[in-house]
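Appendix B. Raw example, untouched.
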Amino acid sequence: MTATDPAAGDDSLFILTACLLTPARFPSVLGDDYPAACAALGLEPYEEGYGLVLGQDGAGARWTVVVDDVSLVAVAIASWDCGMAYDLSPGEDSVVAGLPGWPLAVVTQAPGVPDPHDPEPEEGDPAPLSPPAEGAWGPAHRRLGADEVALRWNEWRERMDPADAPDPESPGSGTAPEAPESPGSPASSGPDPYDGVRAALEELRGYLVEPPPVGRVRSSGLGGGEARTIRADGSDWSLAARTDDMAFVLLDARPGEVFPVARGPRLPALLEALDALAVRPS
């Protein structure tokens, strides 16, 4: 991606990647909704949002630069996603904050500088940002897991016969099929875990009565057709679903497990209502 001239010294920034922080699109690792994600970075949840630029300075230190030129960052991301080069060079007047560390795991590094490391702290500096620890399980991991299910929907659907997926709101339901073991595999059988799934669905219905903070429910297109992908988060759960299909739920209380939810008689109406409520990318 973009690297500034190393002759500029340690104050230069070698840009490795970028992401958006807007009501409709934000790194879910930061929080359940847009205000929570902004609060994690010490930012005001402005409606226009921000761009997050992740890179290294001339000494190799990790930095997250927050800019208010959202359009510039969005164009860069879209270009990179299409395999096109794009020189992302935000102007100094667009910089809102420079935060030490990275909130996301970045596997690349800038050439010609030391390995990525946190900058030496100065008095009054915030603690460096860091991604969630690997091998652990918590709200951030749960949200990232739901993102992965939504991103790789077809792979997850291939693992699950819709006829085998339980409808936890039907009497006597709540047993999920056995599935191959893998990180974030479909949940093992047993009725108790589906108490948490039922509670999540009930909380989702509560969103229709009292709307949650902006970004708690998000809807995105599928590149054609009318179906939408729904991503929603709550107190201790995350949901990934499609309006024309079934849903998957992840729970804080069940590390690494993914619970399939059959379409059933009530889920379609719930997903359509959530889609109407959700914030969408502009």
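End of appendix B.
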